[in-house]
Amino acid sequence: MPRTHILSTGFRVPDRVVTNDDLASMMDTSDAWIRQRSGIEERRWVEEGEAGSDLGAAAAAMALERAGMKAEDLDCLIVATLSPDHFFPGTGVFLQRKLGIRDIPCLDVRNQCTGFLYGLSIADAWIRTGRYERILLVGTEVHSTGLHRNDFGRDTAVLFGDGAGAVILGPVGPAEGGRGDGNGSAPERGILSVHIHADGRFAEKLWVEAPASKYDPLISHEHIDAGLTCPSMDGREVFRQAVSRMPEAVREALDAEGLSIDEVDMVIAHQANLRICQMVQRALGLSDDRIYNNIQRYGNTTAASLPIALHECVEEGRLRCGDLLCLTAFGSGFTWGSALIRW
Ligand code: UT7
Question: How far apart (Å, rounded) are the C-alpha atoms in residues 326 and 342?
Fold first, then answer.
């Protein structure tokens, strides 16, 4: 079976920069509180009418260009998002339309901050088994339109941001180093394994309750007045579990591949909170040059956070061919996971 590899990356964040001081003019918060508790300095918010599929299409166009491919070369599209353009159909079909392509399957993945890893797991399986050859995987989010930008929602409004990241995945053969050099001196490139988890006991610890088909009608003025359309979060519980689940998932991936943390060149953890990332770093005993963070500039972009960080990590030349990269995420569901990739 061939290995799956990330052939290229792309990203797009909205032009509109929203600083902590901007938020402090909308709600009872401060630059000092936000920096100290989360490490976030600014985030991006869309302009009116700019959708997750727009951000995703722009990120995808960049990834296609870097891979030297046209949209017509793709044979499958996977979109991870918790903030779909509409209740249905999924964001995938809108994104497909914006790329000007037709007749390829579009799968929407709804696994929140771990959505990118769930999508990666599916894409990896499809490519290894030969089902599809060129898969576009996009993580895209528009949080700003769903946040309570006032005192009521201040615990979540300061954390989340808008953005999109994209990768193109394909099989990597022996000629590209996909099976090593046959003498054991060059490591095999590509995705080694992806590990995904969920525990629904914690579903309401971080969720948006409505609109909900279990209510009749699925959305009402009462829902809106009660704040059910905005994220509700038990921040301390999310924090507590995130700092143990992500290192656990990294160790699980390493054990599965018979590797040790000393062999990992770079860890990119879901950008939920800089303090969470720093605790993951400490738990794994990583030096500063072996972890990549950019939450300071974008806030928490949930499903988009890993592909945006991966793109910037690549652009900054922090990943070299043959490096061992580990991705990990944790979020609403609760869901969490990891992936090991030989770059
Ligand atoms: O992808 C996963 C997404 N979610 C997360 O990763 C969130 C994980 N959790 C966290 O990051 C942290 O729990 C927060 C950043 C959300 C909060 O930090 P904390 O140190 O756990 O603060 P706290 O919830 O214990 O709140 C401390 C105080 C409270 O006031 P009192 O009760 O002590 O008077 C809050 O009301 O801070 C208050 N507070 C704020 N103050 C200023 C809550 N939000 C704000 C705010 N600005 N935006």
Answer: 9
Torsion 310-313-318-321 (CA) sign: positive
Ramachandran angles phi, psi of 286, nearest 5°: -95, 140
Say how many Å lie between the CA of residue 240 and the centre of ligand 1: 13
CATH classification at residue 37: 3.40.47.10
Is the confidence at residue 135, as pLDDT, over 60?
Answer: yes
Q: pLDDT tens digits, residue range 186-211? A: 568 999 999 999 999 999 999 999 99
Q: Are residues 147 and 236 in the same domain?
A: no
Nearest CA to ligand 1 atom 20: 37
Residue 181 belongs to some domain of the structure: no
142: Cβ below 6 Å to ligand 1? no
What dihedral do alpha carbons 93, 96, 101, 106 form, nearest 10°?
-60
Residue 156 confidence (pLDDT)? 95
pLDDT value of residue 1: 82
Kindly report the protein residue whose alpha carbon is nearest to atom 47 of ligand 1.
29
User: What angle do the packed helices 115-128 and 305-315 form, to 10 degrees?
Assistant: 70
Which residues form the catalytic set?
113, 270, 300
Query: Do residues 166 and 54 lie in contact, with contact meaning Cβ atoms separated by under 8 Å?
Result: no
Expressed in angstroms and rounded, the spacing between residue 235 Cα and the centre of ligand 1 is 6
Does one domain contain both 126 and 219?
no
Tell which one of 239, 245, 280, 332 to mutate to probe ligand 1, the residue whose CB is within 8 A of the most ligand atoms. 239
C-beta 328 within 6 A of ligand 1? no
Assigned domain for 185 exists: no
